[in-house]
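Protein modeling request. Please complete all fields; requests missing the sequence field cannot be processed.
Requester role: graduate student
Desired output: 3D structure, token encoding
Chains: 1
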Amino acid sequence: MGWRDALISLAALHWLVCAPLHAIALRGQVPRSPVARTHDPAVDQTEPDSAARHFFSAPFLLVGAFVMLMTPATAAVPAHLVNLLRENGLSEVWVIAVPASIGVIQVLGRLLLYFFEHRFDLHQANRFIPG
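Delivered output (131 residues):
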């Protein structure tokens, strides 16, 4: 299947599965109308915009920087790993199995976190796991 047929298949899947599920699950839901705000200069000066306050906070910017730095490595490693393993003489079975096992190892890691999170500090784990 070429890329065009794959995209058509995905679009059909969305139309045939996802759209009806959303239509059924969201039937009768009324979109919330925005709350009308009165213009009060005293409130505007003392209360900064909630979204802007969060967008420019240190934790938000640090998480954003972490994601932006980690994503290229996460995307590049499996693709380049195939050629690197071939160049080092591994058999085709291992060349495919090693990059494919990354997802399995992630699931195993999530299961370990789920079952053992009460035994260690999650903040420490979040510092250790990306490394």
